[in-house]
Specification:
230 residues, mainly alpha, Arc Repressor Mutant, subunit A, Four Helix Bundle (Hemerythrin (Met), subunit A), 3-stranded antiparallel β-sheet, 9 helices, 3 strands
Length: 230
């Protein structure tokens, strides 16, 4: 499954270890791990070849990813991307709901008018076309991820941002999978528009509530309809 990763070679420099880690982390959380029956296996040698580096920084990066719970090394079998159970995914989304709703609240208090306007313009750009063909759904899926990451960043709270980073890594794949449901895509766009309006108007309590409810809708959808996690 290593061949499914989208990775570009990395140039050697003093920050090589961190760059290898960041590249592998981004690639792992971007994988559609729930579309296959078995957890994807990562080949250390192939990863090193793809990145154009030795196996040492790759081995160290995989160890760091294991500490984050994104991969797991099984003796005599190799390293595999971790697939969460339905219960685990729901719990992660519930925690995310608390983090993102607080981030939205803080954004109304600390983000500048210019930052909020830039956020609104970006969102309007990628939500303008609501066609449901496959290419647009895939594009919207990625922009949906950016929408939620932007809200976290607008909080200006470094501890919240670092905490959310780990939670979001675990739910990235499940967001990408569930947003491909046309009905959820439409509802997501509607929810996003309401959230944007509340943010722009700096309606602190309202945007906190909207963001929390939006995330908890995903948890409810996973519990009721995502059978491939059972």
């Amino acid at each position: 499954m290593t061949d499914d990763l989208r990775i570009k070679p990395i140039q050697s420099d003093p920050g090589l270890k961190d760059r290898v880690f960041d590249a592998l982390r981004t690639a792992v959380i971007s994988m559609d791990i729930y579309s296959v029956k078995e957890p994807p296996k990562l080949d250390e040698r192939k990863l090193a070849d793809m990145l154009g580096v030795s196996r040492t920084p790759v081995r160290e990066a995989l160890s760091r990813l294991e500490q984050e719970g994104l991969v797991k090394n099984i003796p005599r079998r190799g390293t595999f991307v971790v697939r969460k159970t339905k219960r685990e995914i729901v719990e992660i989304i519930q925690v995310w709901a608390a983090l993102e709703s607080m981030a939205a609240r803080l954004a109304t208090l600390h983000a500048s008018d210019k930052e909020l306007e830039s956020f609104r313009i970006r969102c309007n750009g990628y939500q303008a076309d609501r066609r449901s063909d496959g290419a647009r759904i895939d594009e919207y899926s990625e922009n949906n991820i950016k929408f939620h990451q932007d809200i976290i960043s607008l909080s200006k709270n470094d501890f919240l941002i670092s905490t959310a980073r780990l939670s979001f890594a675990h739910m990235h794949s499940i967001r990408s999978s569930t947003i491909k449901d046309p009905d959820r895509t439409i509802q997501s766009i509607i929810d996003h528009m309401r959230i944007i309006e509340a943010l722009m108007n700096r309606e602190t309590a309202k945007v906190e509530k909207l963001v929390r409810e939006h995330a908890l809708k995903l948890a409810e959808h996973v519990e009721k309809h995502v059978y491939y996690l059972d």
